[in-house]
Input
Amino acid sequence: MPEPRETAVYTHGHHESVLRSHTWRTAANSAAYLLPSLKPHMRILDIGCGPGTITADLAELVPEGRVTGVDRAPGILEQARATAAGRGLANTDFAVADVHALDYPDDTFCVVHAHQVLQHVGDPVRALREMKRVVRPGGLIAVRDADYEAMTWYPASEGLDSWLDLYRRVARANGGEPDAGRRLKAWALRAGLTDITATSGTWTFATPQERAWWSGLWADRTLASAYADRAVEGGHADEAGLRDVARAWREWGTRDEGWFSVLHGEILCRKEA
Output
């Protein structure tokens, strides 16, 4: 594969079907591996905060500390601010930032957290070096990313096979790495981190409500999001092909025996004191 670019295009964009999944995320379902390490006084940087649901959860867990949420998309930060305000949180702030070049001094934060970020950046090793730079000695870098090739489902579906192949091609054409989960430890080592705890976690969608929600958002995303536009504009699919994939998602969602699991890689890295 070619060397990653310094920046990459965010494959999903911020269509409603994308935010439907982003606003579902919580610290409990997306950062459980980090939570036992949090202390009430900590200052946390939440990179790629999106609509701010995880950011707000983290802020509630560090009532004597502060959480700064950053994202490259200015528009989504307004939703993040509204999320924090709606929960009455006074210990949050938000800013536009590029993970490759964070505008913070060395040794600023107790924890730097990034959920589903490194799969979308052009240089994940440089991003991790920046995280290492801004975290304090003895502080933690916590990163979690999905691994698309490792996603699995039942029953078998040629349409979902086509979806997975298409998504991975589009993501890589945009400069990202959709199978980031398995690479996190290797990237951390290349970034100079040595105290690394590597784990994994899953999301599972199996109840009728879970299947309907997961299949519906991916069907809609396949037809109407920035991902759909980039699939067509990049020559990876045509409109008819996207409709076939969306139809396969909706059909899978109706199956009583349907089951889908999303594997995530996780790393918790402590910066040397």
